[in-house]
TrEMBL record:
<dbReference type="InterPro" id="IPR036188">
    <property type="entry name" value="FAD/NAD-bd_sf"/>
</dbReference>
<keyword id="KW-0285">Flavoprotein</keyword>
<dbReference type="Pfam" id="PF00743">
    <property type="entry name" value="FMO-like"/>
</dbReference>
<protein>
    <submittedName>
        <fullName>FAD/NAD(P)-binding domain-containing protein</fullName>
    </submittedName>
</protein>
<keyword id="KW-0560">Oxidoreductase</keyword>
<dbReference type="GO" id="GO:0004499">
    <property type="term" value="F:N,N-dimethylaniline monooxygenase activity"/>
</dbReference>
<feature type="region of interest" description="Disordered">
    <location>
        <begin position="24"/>
        <end position="50"/>
    </location>
</feature>
<keyword id="KW-0274">FAD</keyword>
<dbReference type="InterPro" id="IPR050982">
    <property type="entry name" value="Auxin_biosynth/cation_transpt"/>
</dbReference>
<dbReference type="InterPro" id="IPR020946">
    <property type="entry name" value="Flavin_mOase-like"/>
</dbReference>
<dbReference type="GO" id="GO:0050661">
    <property type="term" value="F:NADP binding"/>
</dbReference>
<dbReference type="GO" id="GO:0050660">
    <property type="term" value="F:flavin adenine dinucleotide binding"/>
</dbReference>
<feature type="compositionally biased region" description="Low complexity">
    <location>
        <begin position="37"/>
        <end position="50"/>
    </location>
</feature>
Length: 647
């Protein structure tokens, strides 16, 4: 569940469009088109390296994964050190992938197949100067996720001129011309970990001397920026804004976080009371301060809200609450930002000149959407957006229609039904349903309590290029659906429209592509099966009436309250509301996947120099806050000129 940075005031019962400053009115959605679920890629698309395709019937029982990794790594290190591009390519299969995260390109890039990898290496291998390559022998293993897929996976470390990094390679078996089994790389990841000369101030590098009573006054001066303006200003103190602020603080980059709510965590605290995390705590740990091992696997939203508040205090982050950015302008020459911040409690304003401006407005940009239907103004009941819903006790005795069928809709309907409120879910298009029991246990196996260190787990999880990840997710989606067969069959019997996600890639494919369209089942789906939550899914809404909703099939649903659980605008829209339309022609899409399967705009170039967008789930923000902080620190210290490899 992504943090939402802006919570508008409740809508009036008489639907007044002129008062909807923060609500985006959108046309009614067209009928849903069934997702393509074929597991067979087109002839031009990548394919999984199945053993059959590789000409391997079976693997030896006594296979020594460590020896295989050592032999390959020795050759890889030799060729990289001598910049022998053809030698490196000889260690890879024809349709291999090389994903680089900042280490060689200062960007998030994927190069697929040998011709593209050759061009990349010819351009960047010598310039990057990879040295000190060393195999991490502690995590080498043979993995066989399916009977027809197998690879040796290993981690390695390296250095460049400007930093240190870590990587992943996966070796797949092939039959050589003489019939012997040989192992070549199918995937290589190179990832920047740290900048030379500018390490994070953690562990042995943290403050060592006693303070002797000076700490409180020091914190006051730091928090108010008495001595100098910050270098970076972050808008939004959700989990995204706090984690990038923490990363920058411990890289010695003074950072101010501005949050319009009275308390840190209010972006979770003010949402509906039944809100829970739907991803396991093992993968949601935050930078520098993991959740206690005593925590529930799926913490409540308000529990997380309190955690965020304590996180900001414990890490001594400089956060101004009850404050908002009222103006932000960029100097065309220096690219610095002049940002006006208003303290809402006093009305006082202060102008800062900062090098970088980071928007951390959440997955949605904080701006809700409400579709427009005819005769909405005639409805005599109340209309609200899901962001204004708090708890079922506010609607006891009401008849409620919830428009939408994804996470918020399910959570709200479950809360209403559990408290005896007559709740009907109005489904407009198919939803990908995955139970947390069957889904999370299969999708996030690298994150386990007491398992790999979180940094190594993140590296492995992020080492699959987007195109390959999609193919894996299509298989996984089918496996999970089979495990959830009883639940899904029950939903079908009720008339619930099911989806396998975009191109059959399941809910994680939807997370990656658009951050919606799914529900991780924590009880609400079963309530639909059991009839505790009513469902209207056989016709689209035609118009409102005085007493409810009229559908295209001529049926009517009487209700006293309509809740639009219809999602939010795109992050880019939230940025434009903050900055103004003068940047509209420059800003790239944010979160949309680019041609290489990487997220556009998030954590990387957004189209405007020194402007950034920090977003994602808790685990994504833990990982990519480091990546964004390294880019900013490199710019601040002159290690990087801002140019990215673009070929």
């Amino acid at each position: 569940m992504a943090a939402v940075a802006s919570i508008p005031q409740p809508l009036p019962s008489a639907f007044d469009k002129s008062r909807l400053d923060d609500i985006q009115l959108t046309p009614q959605l067209p009928p849903h088109r069934p997702a393509v679920t074929s597991d067979s890629p087109s002839s031009s698309a990548p394919s999984l390296p199945t053993l059959t395709r590789l000409g391997v019937d079976e693997l030896p029982n006594n296979l020594d994964a460590l020896h295989i990794a050592r032999v390959w790594m020795q050759s890889f290190e030799r060729y990289v050190s001598s910049c022998e591009v053809e030698g490196i390519l000889s260690l890879m299969v024809e349709d291999s992938f090389w994903r680089d995260v900042l280490a060689m390109t200062w960007d998030f890039r994927v190069f697929q197949d040998k011709p593209h990898i050759r061009r990349f290496l010819l351009d960047r291998l010598s310039a990057s100067n990879l040295t000190s390559l060393k195999l991490d022998e502690s995590v080498v293993q043979l993995q066989q996720p399916y009977p027809d897929l197998a690879w040796v996976q290993a981690l390695f470390n390296f250095e460049t001129d400007n930093g240190t990094g870590s990587g992943v390679f996966r070796l797949i078996p092939l039959r050589s011309s003489n019939g012997a089994l040989e192992w070549k790389a199918h995937v290589i990841l190179t990832n920047l970990d740290d900048l030379k000369g500018f390490p994070e101030k953690i562990g042995s590098l943290r403050e060592q001397l006693p303070n002797h009573g000076k700490w409180l006054e020091q914190r006051r001066r730091e928090l108010e920026f008495k001595d100098a303006d910050p270098k970076v200003l972050v808008v939004g103190a959700g989990h995204a804004g706090l984690q990038i602020a923490a990363r920058l603080k411990y890289l010695d980059v003074p950072t101010l976080v501005v949050e319009r709510h009275p308390r840190v965590g209010d972006n979770w605290r003010t949402r509906y009371e039944s809100l829970n995390l739907h991803t396991p705590a093992e993968m949601d740990h935050m930078a520098y301060l993991p959740f206690p091992s005593t925590w529930p696997r799926y913490p409540a939203g308000r529990k997380l809200a309190d955690w965020l508040e304590s996180y900001a205090q414990s890490l001594e982050l400089d956060v101004w609450t009850s404050a908002e950015v009222t103006e932000a302008n960029q100097d065309e020459t220096s690219k610095k930002w002049t940002v006006t911040v208003k303290r809402l409690e006093t009305g006082q304003e202060r102008k800062f000149t900062v090098d970088h401006l980071i928007c951390a407005l959440g997955w949605t940009g904080g701006l809700p959407k409400v579709p427009v239907y005819p005769a909405m103004e005639a409805f005599k009941g109340q209309i609200i957006h899901s962001s204004q819903y708090n708890a079922a006790r506010d609607y006891l005795g009401k008849r409620v229609a919830v428009i939408g069928a994804c996470t918020s809709a399910h959570d709200i309907c479950a809360d209403l039904a559990e408290h005896g409120v007559d709740a009907t879910m109005v489904q407009r298009s198919g939803t990908c349903i995955v139970s947390v029991k069957e889904g999370n246990s299969r999708a996030f196996t690298v994150y386990t309590q007491g398992g790999l260190p979180i940094e190594k787990a993140d590296l492995m999880f992020g080492s699959f290029p987007g195109a390959l990840l999609k193919l894996m997710q299509k298989r996984l989606a089918k496996v999970i659906a089979e495990a959830d067969a009883e639940l899904l069959d029950g939903l079908r019997r009720r008339g619930f429209k099911l989806s396998m996600g975009d191109d059959g890639a399941g809910y994680y494919g939807l997370v990656r592509s658009r951050g919606g369209g799914y529900y991780l089942e924590m009880g609400a789906s079963q309530m639909i099966v059991d009839g505790k939550i009513k469902l209207k899914s056989d016709s689209l809404i035609d118009r409102f009436t005085e007493t409810g909703l009229m559908f295209q099939d001529g049926t009517e649903l009487s209700c006293d309250l309509v809740i639009f659980a219809t999602g939010y605008q795109r992050p880019r829209d939230g940025m434009l509301k903050l900055l103004g339309d003068q940047f509209g022609g420059k800003l790239k899409p944010i979160w949309d996947l680019d041609a290489e399967g990487e997220h556009s705009g998030a954590w990387r170039d957004v189209g405007v120099p020194n402007l950034w967008y920090m977003m994602g789930g808790l685990g994504q923000c833990r990982t990519h806050s480091k990546h964004l902080a390294l880019q900013i620190k490199a710019l601040e210290e002159g290690l990087w000129d801002g140019n990215r490899y673009s070929a």
